[in-house]
Amino acid sequence: MPEPLTIIYLSYSFIAFYFLFLFLLIYAKNRKNFFFVPEITKNYSLSIIIPCYNEEENIGGTIEAVLDSDYKGLKKIIVVDDCSKDNSYEVIKKYAKKYKKVMGVRTLKNTGKASGAKNYGAKFVDTELIGFVDADSYPQKEAIRKMIGFFDDEDMASVTSSILVKKGETFIERLQLIEYRIIAFTRKLLGFVGAIYVTPGPLAIYRKKAFDNVGRFDESNLTEDIEITWHFLSKGYKIEMSVPSRAYTVVPNKFKAWYSQRIRWNIGGIQTINKYKKTFARKGILGSFVLPFFVLSWILGFLGIGILVYRGFRIIAVHYLITKYSIEAQAAVLTLRQINLTPNILLFFGTSILLLSLSFTLLAISYIKEKEFKKVRIFNILIYSFVYLLAYPFILIMSIFKYLKKEKLW
């Protein structure tokens, strides 16, 4: 009978191989349609909402980026100040006074969350489509236009975009530059099987009727963009992604800010899983794929880091004991008989997963060749693959702990 560790290791290998081959097969089948954008057949009316809190340094640039959009159906830009403590609202009023298309509003009191400001801004929208852009994000000129054609499908509730890193000055920003490319690449692959699970805040557009039908954003959830996407899927709506639509966003440039952001993302994910757990393994893409994919991805992280810690501890402990007792007994620490050159099946699986994962990372980074994508150094890729990603299981553990303690992170 195999040892428990062997069973765990083989289970980990199976899940890892399954996801890697699934993504590679989806890519191979759909690579020619990766950048597909439907032609615009109808000039849908659109309003863009920009939620803002203490963003006086960024809000002006974001408003200008949205104003620069070449989509002719953009009717209003509603900038919602969530009672900022800096001069954000003063900047917003200047733009509202200068441009007829810009409308500046302020919440009655600080909602303390992006979803609160977004829902408040939605009260002023009467267009067919409603879009959202974070106050520190900058959509490219053609980004919105290249998302509109997907709404000719009446079941289309939302269209998301490629979210990329605006700056790459600090080391942690450069690692996120890699991460965001891989996320964008993977999200499009999920789109080919109808399984996009988030419409990120830097740039997403919703059909207003569908947005209202699901009750708008859930203000009790830390990741309202994940929750509303799952809500759409649970109602049978479709979600798409326009890869050529790019929005550049400011990311954390220090470890502490990055850590806090990832904790919030994970807790929001846990909240969403808990809310929709009854759909697990049931009919519909949410229960049959998205939810299992989410859960299995986390299990994969737990198993991976658990195996790594166990093997590392075991190797150190064994070598310490062998060395200690060999010295005391005045025996050889290592003999030729102890060197095992026989291939180990578990080592083979581990090496294969590592090489496939690295290949997928390189594919994701190199596949999109637009000039806006910054060059990535091999050293950064290696650090991302072998150090950065190892932090995620630990962050997930801390997130679960904080979730159970019901800590507030707003």
Write a structural description.
The chain is α/β, with parallel strands linked by helices and 410 residues long. The model is unreliable at 332-343 (pLDDT under 50). Helix 1 packs across helix 10 (285-329) and helix 1 packs parallel to helix 11. The chain has 2 domains: 4-27 and 289-405, no CATH class; 34-252, Spore Coat Polysaccharide Biosynthesis Protein SpsA, Chain A (Alpha-Beta Complex). The longest helix is centred in the last third of the chain and has 45 residues, at 285-329. Helix 2 links the parallel strand 1 (46-52) and strand 2. The protein has helices spanning 4-30, 59-67, 88-98, 114-122, 145-148, 171-191, 208-213, 224-234, 255-275, 285-329, 345-367, 378-388, 391-405, and strands at 46-52, 74-81, 102-106, 129-132, 137-139, 156-165, 204-207, 238-249. Strands 3-2-1-4-7-6-8-5 form an 8-stranded mixed beta sheet, sandwiched between helices. The chain contains 13 helices and 8 strands.
Short structural description:
The chain has 410 residues and is α/β, with parallel strands linked by helices.
Mean pLDDT equals: 86
- CATH topology (fold) name of the largest domain: Spore Coat Polysaccharide Biosynthesis Protein SpsA, Chain A
Tally of structural domains: 2
Low-confidence stretches: 332-343
**What is the N-to-C order of secondary-structure elements (H for helix, E for strand)?**
HEHEHEHEEHEHEHHEHHHHH
User: Percent of residues in beta strands?
Assistant: 5-15%
Overall CATH architecture of the largest domain:
Alpha-Beta Complex
Task: Report the end-to-end length measured between terminal Cα atoms.
Answer: 50 Å
* Oligomer classification: single chain
* Helical/strand content category: alpha/beta
- Can you list the strand order of the major beta sheet? 3-2-1-4-7-6-8-5
CATH class identity of the largest domain: Alpha Beta
Major beta sheet summary = 8 strands, mixed
CATH superfamily of the largest domain: Spore Coat Polysaccharide Biosynthesis Protein SpsA, Chain A
Helix content estimate? 40-55%
Question: What overall form do the CA principal axes indicate?
Answer: globular
Radius of gyration: 24 Å
Q: What is the tally of helical segments?
A: 13
**Would you count the extended β strands for me?**
8
